[in-house]
TrEMBL record:
Name used for this protein in its record: Radical SAM domain protein
Xref: PANTHER family: SPORE PHOTOPRODUCT LYASE, SPORE PHOTOPRODUCT LYASE-RELATED
Signal sequence interval, chain numbering: none
GO molecular function: 4 iron, 4 sulfur cluster binding; DNA photolyase activity; S-adenosyl-L-methionine binding
Domain of life: Bacteria
Any single Gene Ontology cellular-component annotation: endospore-forming forespore
Length: 372
């Protein structure tokens, strides 16, 4: 029987590959994995590596572009100095995402349906080998900044390769952040204490009405439990928290559900972030997701230029979520994504400077330092 690709990959209808990447491991693997599926005969187009941009516009159909990337693979997260940033480093493996969340910032970055994967993995690994060479320096890294860490894993096996490569670097903790379930990277990990599988959490209403082609919350939590049982510590992220009618019941339901699947000590850390929006994103959301209403709530421009919910509303939501999580035994693992000292103090009763800084604490938690 012909196999089908997972739901979130079903819109891919064309593969583009740089001329120089035709024989790359990734290109050969994608070809092999498509063979035997109902997408075995997708058109492949070889393009010049100098092409800046692929023109592909076929309604909701998507193209996968296996590209030779010439830029920096290891980067700093583009946080802002105005708020407490978590000091994360990004391993850049590609751009864009096959799923569709109404609030996704990638819509403003990449206004096309082209999913890019950097197929020159050898160059990526050389740069990482150099960057991570000093074993006395620790790194907390992730791939889920300009894409979803595992969305294309079924075709590319990229995270599996990365996990395998990082087996030689005990000074690196890798977070794999996703909204789908793909655990095929697990068998590559020699050290369960250096890989942090992570899933986004939200209220059920948001999962059902604002996130498309993604896994359900129960599927994500069930995957988190599988990882925890195998010895990995997981990360969960409430980001973006959205202000909608009935949010209290919704977030309470999800928080309670989490602890049906995992125990607090199996969670390395958990972020909470309110919906933030660059000014140019609002009309894009309105256009792409006409039923979405939360964008018309009460927002003010933040110090980073992004619109954010009025502070009293943010604090009300944060306090509710934090108190509920604390009642389940969570405490030090909780942190805010991009919030001010005042908001930290108001909700937690302390601020990052009281424990030596957020980046330091998260580094310790990634590496499971018992003092954190
Ligand atoms: S899964 Fe993440 S990267 Fe993909 S559309 Fe949703 S928010 Fe964006």
């Amino acid at each position: 029987m012909t196999k089908q690709l997972p739901n979130h990959l079903r819109r891919i209808s064309h593969i583009f590959v740089d001329e120089s990447m035709q024989d790359s491991l990734i290109a050969r693997r994608v070809q092999r994995r498509l063979a035997g599926t109902d997408k075995a005969n997708l058109p492949w187009t070889v393009v010049s590596p100098d092409m800046d941009r692929i023109e592909f516009s076929k309604g909701s159909e998507q193209a996968l572009y296996l590209k030779e990337y010439k830029g920096k693979f290891l980067r700093f997260c583009p946080g802002t100095k105005a708020y407490h940033c978590c000091g994360y480093r990004i391993i850049h493996i590609g751009e864009n995402c096959p799923m569709a969340c109404s609030y996704c910032i990638l819509q403003a970055y990449f206004q096309d349906q082209v999913l890019k994967i950097w197929a020159n993995q050898g160059d990526l690994f050389s740069e990482l080998a150099e960057g991570f060479a000093n074993q006395a320096q620790r790194f907390r890294v992730g791939t889920g900044e300009f894409t979803d860490s595992l969305a294309l894993e079924h075709l590319t096996g990229y995270s599996h390769d990365l996990v395998e490569f990082l087996n030689n670097y005990s000074n690196v903790a890798l977070e794999l952040k996703s909204k789908v379930v793909d655990l095929s990277w697990m068998d590559a990990a020699k050290r369960t204490d250096r890989i942090l599988p992570a899933w986004s959490m939200n209220a059920p209403f948001i999962n059902e009405h604002e996130e498309f082609d993604v896994s359900t919350l129960r599927e994500r939590l069930s995957a988190a439990r599988t990882c925890a049982e195998a010895g990995f510590r997981v990360c969960l992220h409430f980001d973006p928290v959205i202000h909608y009618p009935g949010w209290e019941e919704g977030y309470a339901e999800t928080i309670d559900l989490i602890f049906d699947y995992v125990k607090p000590h199996q969670i390395a850390y958990m972020s909470i972030g309110s919906f933030r929006c660059m000014p140019q994103l609002t009309p894009i959301i309105a256009d792409n997701f006409p039923k979405t209403t939360y964008i018309y709530d009460e927002f003010i421009p933040g110090l980073d230029g992004k619109a954010r919910l009025l502070r009293p509303l943010r604090v009300k939501q944060f306090s509710f979520i934090v108190n509920r999580l604390r009642a389940h035994g969570m405490d030090k693992q909780l942190y805010f994504c991009m919030e001010s000292t005042d908001v930290w103090n108001e909700v937690f009763g302390y601020a990052p400077k009281d424990f030596g800084g957020l980046a330091k604490r998260l580094m310790g938690q990634s590496f499971d330092d018992q003092s954190q």
